[in-house]
Design goal:
By secondary structure, this protein is mainly beta. Helix content is about 5%, strand content about 45%. The strands form two sheets. The chain has a six-stranded mixed sheet with strand order 2-10-9-4-5-6, with no helix packed on it. The chain has a four-stranded antiparallel sheet with strand order 1-3-8-7. A hairpin with a 6-residue loop joins strand 4 (about 35-40) and strand 5 (about 45-50). The N and C termini lie far apart (about 40 Å).
């Protein structure tokens, strides 16, 4: 059974940090390139960070490069996103999923990140 459970969001002041976690079922995680996505109010969901199946390669959107770090633990089937120097424009609902997940695929409930300026 596919399962993705995001956690770690919250309310933080600009300049602060948060660490998101995503606990995944093995079928949703093992062997897949994974990503963190965010959906800001009134906008489409976008990929902000990704990591390949082994964890050896990461990619970031220009908006978060240098501030966010994506890490995976293949023993725990868990994906992490360390977010530093947060800005108000980072506010949104954050999801984890396969990097190539489509809109109609299964998505977890997400975790809300709100950055106050």
């Amino acid at each position: 059974q596919v399962q993705l459970v995001e956690s770690g969001g919250g309310l933080v002041q600009a300049g602060g940090s948060l660490r998101l976690s995503c606990a995944a079922s093995r079928s949703a995680f093992t062997g897949y390139d994974m990503g963190w996505f965010r959906q800001a109010p009134g906008k489409d969901r976008e990929l902000v960070a990704s990591v390949n199946w082994s964890g050896s390669r990461t990619d970031y959107s220009d908006a978060v490069k240098g501030r966010f770090t994506i890490v995976r633990d293949n023993y725990k089937n868990t994906l992490y996103l360390q977010m530093n120097s947060l800005k108000s424009e980072d506010t949104g609902l954050y999801y984890c999923n396969k990097k190539r997940a489509k809109k109609d695929d299964y998505w977890g409930q997400g975790t809300q990140v709100t950055v106050s300026s």
